[in-house]
Amino acid sequence: MAEIKDFLHKPITTSKINFWSTFKNNLELIYHSLLPHAFPVEPNSKITKKSIKKRDIDLVYESSIEIYKDSKERINSLENKAFNLMTYISAITALLIFLLDKELNTITKILAFTSILTLILALLISLRCIGIKTQKTLFINSMFEFNDNQLPKSKSKKHIAAELINNAIFNQNIADNTTDILKASRMLLFCGIILSLVTFLSFIIQNEERKIEPNKKIEIVNSKYIDSLFLDYKKSKTLKSEKISNKTDTSNKKIEKVILLRKAEK
Question: Domain coordinates of the chain in residue numbers?
Fold first, then answer.
């Protein structure tokens, strides 16, 4: 007896990741996104009106409209995603440019410029996903047949349905390529974010070191000042003791003289 679970998909499991092959594929994707692209090659075979049976005309026609709409909506959705991605890239780049106005050490400067370069590449790739002109749409020549000496005649429903399907296939191919380009931009944005975080961390460490250095200098100055004060105090103390001893010596000598004078009078 059939149960509901027999018709449901199995839970999604994790897959093993080959980091080297993933890294290599991502580099190839970025390289593909930066280079100019050729016009898509037409397939060996196309859908024609002969491919559609008479009894299925209405069903195929309605389905072809939906397929064509989906292909156009997918491209529009990718363009919106690319625009949003550009907003994030611009915001992070602005923060890094603001950071360059500060006093930075060599390592932090190199990290900042590398981050900005990575984000600029991501921005340029994202621009390729906006305003995609390589799309196929229906025009009057897809709906009417034009002859030199005759009035235009409308084409059959089969022909229009076949045109819609072929255009949808072409647009989906463009959307697949745009998806790859957008994926490359996201990867560069991810790398740019990581490099930006390292840059800001390096800047924070640099500031902390700069705060510690003046404190050390102050401590050294204070210790030297205290030592000098202590030496001055010692010197002054010894001088005072010497003065006191000299006074006592002179007073003792005076007393001895007085005693001698009295003894002489007797």
Answer: 24-35+46-212
Residues 76-89 have pLDDT tens digits of 999 999 999 999 99
* Lookup: tokens for 125: 């790739």
Under the banding of pLDDT at 50, 70 and 90, the label for residue 55 is confident
Round the CA-based radius of gyration of the chain to a whole number and report it. 44
Report d(CA 241, CA 255) in Å as an integer: 21
Half-sphere exposure of 153 (CA within 13 A, CB side): 7
Looking at residue 28, its amino acid is E
pTM of the model: 0.71
For residue 104, with 0-12 CB atoms within 10 Å meaning exposed, 13-18 middle and 19 or more buried, which class applies? middle
User: How far is the C-alpha of 201 from the C-alpha of 209, rounded, in Å?
Assistant: 12
Best CA proximity match to 43, nearest among 221, 169, 228, 227: 169
Residue 145 carries which side chain, given as an amino acid letter? E
